[in-house]
Specification:
Residues about 5-20 and about 385-390 have low confidence and may be disordered. α3 packs across α4. The radius of gyration is 21 Å and the shape is globular. The protein has one domain (about 5-175, about 245-355): Alpha/Beta hydrolase fold, catalytic domain (Rossmann fold, 3-Layer(aba) Sandwich), CATH 3.40.50. Helices cover about 30% and strands about 20% of the residues. The strands form three sheets. Strands 2-3-6-5-9-10-11-12-13-14 form a ten-stranded mixed beta sheet, with helices on both faces. By secondary structure, the protein is α/β, with parallel strands linked by helices.
Length: about 400
């Protein structure tokens, strides 16, 4: 974590220090990071497979890249190369239970995946190529999408060494996102997103040795939670508590670092209301914390990917908040495509609208639309997957 006093001293130190190294950005170096405990009953640390990318000039600030569910460190390669070209030391690692990393999947549990990410930050503090704010405290940002997006928020809430984050298409609360409730005035959980949850659970069923079992690479408590939800459509009190601990909502009141939040307009898994909740919670708890919200045309349902735009925006965010580069406006951005009622352009074309103030998703008033006419049969798509995306 950076403070003004530390930053000034550090800047002077770097200006006078002769140990500034320049080299061409090349391929990564593979390292092994000693992570958090294997389980609540086994303190043996997991082994995390990671790649380190170095910029042309070091020492430099660092960025930790966290991949999406079912991916590995290789999923982050293009982002890592770009960030290294922009001047950062980048470490991309495979989360426990994925790639060549050991351990079981605990869905970003504070005791396990968050502990692993903190161990990765500790590893960065040992690298001579990384700028330190103090002993053991690297100048570091954390970025990720979906599964990795939730991790970046959680790590910022638990580790005071984190200096900035960028989170995309992820959940605020696993309970309300996977058991979405659309009934106005209802405080209870809604219907389980059976199709989405089964897709992700299936991705973790194959063990490291290639065998398939009931729980696969999932920790027992998360396996039991899924089986119960899939068979009953409900979540137990214990399961709800487990999901909350792995949700950014549990730490948004503690996030005090510059936060870039992205959400997909084509996303029925983690809709914009999840992004909105995270943004509003961080701002309510810490109004002075810089928060930028971006609604882009992508998402878990596809849409129109804006990969390079988001990659550039993320790098710009870190250049400003980690390296003192040009300021990034905190205005709200929303994308319009042909799929939007407000645009008639080609589907590959995206218009970006900007507003000085973030409007949220609640609007200023509500309109009741009565359901009239005779009863009709409605065919619901399997698993609650919508036939069209109407998030915006």
């Amino acid at each position: 974590m950076r403070t003004l006093g530390v930053t000034v001293v550090l800047a002077i130190g770097l200006a006078l220090a002769p140990a500034v190294h320049a080299s061409a950005v090349g391929g990564p170096t593979t390292v092994t990071v000693v992570g958090g405990p294997t389980s609540a009953t086994d303190p043996t640390p997991v082994s995390l497979d990671a790649d380190v990318y170095l910029p042309a000039v070091t020492p430099a600030p660092a960025v930790v890249l966290a991949h999406g569910f079912g991916g590995s460190k290789l999923s982050s390669r293009d982002d890592a190369l770009y960030l290294a070209e922009r001047g950062f030391v980048v470490i991309a690692y495979s989360a426990r239970g994925f790639g060549k990393s050991t351990g079981q999947i605990s869905m970003n549990s504070p005791e396990f995946e968050v502990a692993d990410a903190m161990a990765v930050i500790t590893k960065l503090a040992t690298l001579p190529e990384v700028v330190l704010d103090s002993a053991g405290d690297p100048r570091v940002g954390v970025a990720g999408g979906s599964y990795g997006g939730a991790l970046s928020l959680l790590v910022a809430g638990y580790d005071p060494r984190v200096d900035a984050i960028a989170s995309d298409i992820t959940w605020n609360d696993l309970r309300t996102s996977l058991f979405g409730q659309s009934v106005v005035g209802s405080a209870g959980l809604g219907v389980l997103k059976q199709l989405w949850t089964s897709v992700f659970f299936s991705a973790g069923l194959t063990s490291a040795d290639g065998s398939v079992s009931t729980c696969g690479r999932f920790a027992q408590d998360w396996c039991e939670l899924y089986v119960t939800a899939a068979t009953t459509g409900r979540v137990t009190t214990e399961g709800a508590a487990l999901m909350r601990r792995s949700s950014p909502v549990s730490v948004t009141d503690r996030i005090r670092v510059p936060t870039l939040l992205g959400g997909g307009e084509a996303d029925s898994l983690f809709p914009l209301d999840q992004l909105n909740a995270t943004a509003e919670q961080i701002r309510a708890a810490s109004p002075q914390t810089p928060v930028k919200v971006v609604w882009h045309a992508g998402g878990h349902d596809g849409g129109v990917p804006e990969t390079q735009r988001l990659r550039t925006l993320t790098a710009d965010w870190f250049v400003h908040y980690l390296a003192g580069g040009p300021e990034v406006p905190l205005d709200f951005e929303a994308s319009l495509t042909e799929a939007s009622a407000l645009s008639a352009r080609a589907s590959a074309s995206v218009d970006v609208l900007r507003s000085a103030a973030y409007p949220g998703v609640s609007g200023t008033s509500t309109v009741e639309v009565p359901l009239v006419g005779r009863a009709q049969q409605v065919l619901a798509p399997a698993g609650g997957l919508p036939a069209a995306i109407t998030a915006l």
